[in-house]
Every structure is written in structure tokens, then in C-alpha cells.
């Protein structure tokens, strides 16, 4: 039977173990070790309260026993679609302890994406939060279960709300021994992350216990984390950035404290920075101007904040240079991907480096190529596509052999799709994207997916989606449509796309009608020409 994912070659994996990058332990060992070494230290702060390492570890034990009793079995996939709350962390570690495989799903994803992920992963359960009204996540979970025969259980953080739902609190209260995870799992998939992708087909990224554990520990080290560090999780926990760069797992690996921010507003975040003496946090560029504006008028004490990480899309230099004087902390640019490679600007780098580059690779074992369209290496300073392989960069997507052939070289380098140039000192500067997607506020919006939804609307005969520069979002999505009759109002199209299950952040920011779409000589939509139209006639 064909394997669902592509592991590292045996000789490469053996070298990573010999070099000390990989350890023969599972991710839940990070918490176990934390409980053993400093059990009384605060591990987690959330809107629900505070847990020390010993208390968090014990709660995870109880929940793992409850999940096993459902039953959930080692190796089964579980969709975890929760906001930043205590249950996110306890469910994640409980599944890891059980040997099940969490699939980290953004709360903002709509029905179409979640159903596709459930089918692709063969999910056995879906963990959601309780809510109200037509957007209650429990309704989405029920729809997903009806569309995906493998999905047997709906688990709810909060009031279950139906006899067929299981509550996280109720499962944690169930009796029974903690199941022992099967041995020898360090190089098996620990969790599945969602790739932004360049097509409408969702891709799942298998991250192993060995590679993700190394990613967490190495990131914590390069970011200067220690037992006194306090990490504020502002972005959704399902993001790789928030999870491991150094994020939640890196903080636990260092014995620090994770503070979960329930929303990304600077008002909420600043109150937590003051109350918990936060030392490090992470944002996407779209949020940073709001933080800077709020910092100018806040009365909150932000003096504990030492490092502000910014990543997810390129940060413009002018905004980058405002961070130190206006927030009083160091800026660290982070450029990475859920598929693996992380780049960080060094904490001791001069401002000219921090404000104009997106960092250098995390690991000495990261292998980098910058190549032209023929895969030929380009000299330093020349833009090219970034290719990478290393001890925490995947060798293949989950159940996606056909896509793997296009995304990986025969010798195992991952084609990132990012256009970069490398400085003489080895720092990377992001220039753009090779493939057709929009990087909107750190979220990857696949043009073809949105186009397919637009074409399904009554009266739409042709559609093309491109990105346009935006001072706040990095890029905004612009949809060009050819319709029978006048172009419909944007609000009407927005409602129709949401009803189809498209995630709100994928709905076009701007809609423009054309009598026809420009075509290239071989009959494809000429998106270069569409971008030129935008430049000639920008949004009002």
C-alpha cells in the first residue's frame, strides 16, 4: 500500500539524528519535560485562567484518556478548528499524547474548504468552539460530518449543544488510564498543517515529531527564549508562525509562558502585555500600523516587550523603521512557510539589515538554492525562485503525489514559489511570488479557487483574480468579471461567495467589470495586462 506522505531518505534522516537535529521523542514530550523540570511555573494564560506546567500536563492526561474512550485511535486525523483559547492547547497536546494527528484548521475557513480538508485527511473527528446563530461552528461541524463519512465525532469547546456532540470538559472529566502512545513515532507525522497553495485544491503538510520538535527548539534558541520569556499569541494558533516560530511550541520547549490573545486588536493585546509582562509577540504586516497608532495614545505599560516579530508577508521598510522608536522594542523579521524553512533577522543585527531583509535560514543544515526559470543558480543580488531542503522542510505533501512532482526537484528540494534575492551576507530579500496567488495580510489566497467560485455565480461568464499592492494588506484581491448585463454590486457578490462557503478573507476586496478578459497569444488570460490596467486605473 502506497504511503500517504514522503519521508526523508533513510540516510538523510540518519544524518539528522547523528547531528543532533532530530531527537527520538514525540512533541508531547516538550510538555512532559516542562512539567518534570518546572511544574509550578506558569505555562499557559488564557481567558479561562492560568495553568502551571504540572496542571497543564495533568489536564492533557485527562483529556487524552477521554478522547481515547470515544474512541479515537493512534494515527487517526482530527480537525482542530478553534480560536485562541485554553482548549486549543489542551486538545493539541492530548491528541499528540494519544498518537492521533491534529489537522490545524483556521477558524476563518468556510464550509467548502473544511469539507475538502476533512475528505482529504479522512478525518475521524472535528473539534470546534460553541457559538451562536447561523455562524455557530457546531453547524459547520455537522455539515462536514454529513459530507465526510469518516468523521464520527464532533467535539465542542464549550457547551456541546446536542446529544451527538462531545464536550471537551466532559471528556477531560472521564475516568480511565492515560493511553500510551505507540513506540517509535518520532519520524511519523505529528500533525498536518494547511498550505496556502496556488490552486483551489487544499494541500496538507505532514510535519513529524522529529522535524517539528527541532523547528521549535531551534527557533526558541535563535529568538532568545528562556524560562522567563512570555510569548503572546496574537495571530491564530493554527498558523505555523504562531505554533512554532518560536510560537507556542517553542515557548514550551524553553519553559516560558504562553499567553493566548482572544483577538488581534492592539487594545486587547496591550492590556495583556502590561498585565502579563509579555516579552515577545508576533504580527503580520497588516496589523502593525494599527499597533503603532495605538502605541502613540495608549497608557498601557509596554516596557516589558523586548521583541516584536513580523512575518507572513513582506514588511515595507518605512513601517519597519517605526518599530523601535514607537514601540521601544527590537523588530525581528520572519520569513517562512508551513512547509518548513524559517528565516529570522538576527536579534543583534543592525537596523539596516532588520528593516530591509527578511532574515537568514534558521538551521546550519538548511540548503538553499536561488534559481532562474531553468533551475540554474543565479548570483547573489539577482532575483530567482527559492528552493530549499533541510531537517524541517517536507519532502512531499499529504496524499498529493501528482502535485509533489511539480513542487519538488528530483533531489528533494522544495520549490517555494517565492522570488528572492540573496545578499552577499546570506540574508534573503523577498521580491514576490512565482505562482498565481495573492498574499493578503499573510493569508495566501489562491486565484483559481476564487475564480471558480465567481464562475459559479449566475450571469458570470469569465473571471480573473489578481493581486494589487496595498499599504495595509500587503496585497489586496481584485476580481475582474465578464457578466451578462451590468456588473453586479460588490456587496451582492460578497454575500453570494460567503453563501457558497468561501472564507471571508478570500472574498475579493475589489470587483471590476470588463466587456472581455485580455488573452495571451496562446489563449490564456493575460494577468500581466490586468495588473497593468490596475496600475493605469487604481482604486478610488
UniProtKB/TrEMBL annotation:
InterPro entries: AMP-bd_C, AMP-bd_C_sf, AMP-binding_CS, AMP-dep_synth/lig_dom, ANL_N_sf, ATP-dep_AMP-bd_enzyme. It comes from Thermobifida alba. It comes from the Bacteria. Residues 32-398 form the AMP-dependent synthetase/ligase domain. Residues 449-524 form the AMP-binding enzyme C-terminal domain. PANTHER family: LONG-CHAIN-FATTY-ACID--COA LIGASE, NONRIBOSOMAL PEPTIDE SYNTHASE PES1 (EUROFUNG)-RELATED. This is AMP-binding protein.
Amino acid at each position: 500500500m502506497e504511503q500517504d506522505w514522503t519521508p526523508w531518505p533513510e540516510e538523510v534522516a540518519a544524518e539528522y539524528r547523528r547531528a543532533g537535529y532530530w531527537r527520538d521523542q514525540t512533541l508531547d514530550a516538550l510538555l512532559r519535560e516542562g512539567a518534570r523540570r518546572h511544574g509550578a511555573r506558569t505555562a499557559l494564560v488564557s481567558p479561562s485562567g492560568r495553568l502551571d506546567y504540572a496542571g497543564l500536563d495533568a489536564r492533557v492526561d485527562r483529556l487524552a484518556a477521554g478522547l481515547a474512550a470515544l474512541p479515537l485511535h493512534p494515527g487517526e486525523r482530527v480537525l482542530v478548528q478553534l480560536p485562541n483559547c485554553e482548549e486549543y492547547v489542551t486538545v493539541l497536546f492530548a491528541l499528540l499524547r494519544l498518537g492521533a494527528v491534529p489537522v490545524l484548521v483556521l477558524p476563518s475557513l468556510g464550509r467548502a474548504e473544511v469539507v475538502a480538508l476533512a475528505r482529504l485527511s479522512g478525518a475521524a473527528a472535528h473539534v470546534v468552539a460553541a457559538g451562536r446563530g447561523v455562524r455557530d461552528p457546531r453547524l459547520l461541524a455537522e455539515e462536514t460530518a454529513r459530507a465526510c463519512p469518516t468523521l464520527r465525532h464532533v467535539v465542542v469547546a464549550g457547551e456541546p449543544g446536542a446529544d451527538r456532540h462531545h464536550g471537551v470538559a466532559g471528556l477531560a472529566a472521564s475516568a480511565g488510564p492515560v493511553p500510551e502512545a505507540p513506540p517509535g513515532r518520532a519520524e511519523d507525522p505529528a500533525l498536518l498543517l494547511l498550505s496556502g497553495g496556488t490552486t483551489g485544491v487544499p494541500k496538507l503538510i505532514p510535519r513529524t515529531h522529529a522535524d517539528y520538535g527541532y523547528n521549535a527548539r531551534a527557533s526558541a534558541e535563535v529568538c532568545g527564549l528562556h524560562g522567563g520569556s512570555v510569548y503572546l499569541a496574537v495571530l491564530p494558533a493554527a498558523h505555523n508562525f504562531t505554533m512554532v516560530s518560536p510560537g507556542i511550541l517553542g515557548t514550551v520547549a524553553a519553559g516560558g509562558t504562553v499567553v493566548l490573545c482572544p483577538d488581534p486588536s492592539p487594545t486587547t493585546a496591550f492590556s495583556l502585555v502590561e498585565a502579563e509582562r509579555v516579552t515577545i509577540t508576533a504580527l503580520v504586516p497588516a496589523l502593525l500600523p494599527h499597533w503603532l497608532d495605538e502605541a502613540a495614545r495608549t497608557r498601557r505599560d509596554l516596557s516589558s516587550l523586548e521583541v516584536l516579530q513580523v512575518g507572513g508577508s513582506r514588511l515595507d521598510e518605512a513601517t519597519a523603521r517605526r518599530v523601535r522608536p514607537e514601540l521601544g522594542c527590537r523588530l525581528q523579521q520572519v520569513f517562512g512557510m508551513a512547509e518548513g524553512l524559517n528565516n529570522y533577522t538576527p536579534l543583534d543585527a543592525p537596523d539596516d539589515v532588520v528593516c530591509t531583509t527578511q532574515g537568514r535560514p534558521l538551521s546550519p543544515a538548511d540548503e538553499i538554492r536561488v534559481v532562474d526559470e531553468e533551475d540554474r543558480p543565479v548570483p547573489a543580488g539577482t532575483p530567482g525562485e527559492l528552493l530549499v531542503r533541510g531537517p524541517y522542510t517536507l519532502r512531499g505533501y499529504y496524499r498529493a503525489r501528482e502535485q509533489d512532482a511539480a513542487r519538488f526537484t528530483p533531489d528533494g528540494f522544495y520549490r517555494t514559489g517565492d522570488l528572492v534575492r540573496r545578499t552577499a551576507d546570506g540574508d534573503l530579500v523577498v521580491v514576490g511570488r512565482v505562482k498565481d496567488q495573492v498574499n493578503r495580510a499573510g493569508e495566501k489566497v489562491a486565484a483559481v479557487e476564487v475564480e471558480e467560485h465567481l464562475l459559479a455565480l449566475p450571469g458570470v461568464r469569465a473571471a480573473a483574480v489578481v493581486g494589487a499592492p496595498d499599504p495595509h494588506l500587503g496585497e489586496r484581491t481584485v476580481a475582474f468579471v465578464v457578466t451578462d448585463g451590468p456588473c453586479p454590486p460588490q456587496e451582492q457578490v460578497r454575500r453570494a461567495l460567503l453563501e457558497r462557503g468561501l472564507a471571508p478573507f478570500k472574498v475579493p476586496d475589489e470587483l471590476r467589470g470588463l466587456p472581455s478578459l485580455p488573452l495571451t497569444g496562446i489563449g490564456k488570460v493575460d494577468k500581466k495586462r490586468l495588473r497593468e490596467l490596475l496600475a493605469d486605473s487604481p482604486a478610488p
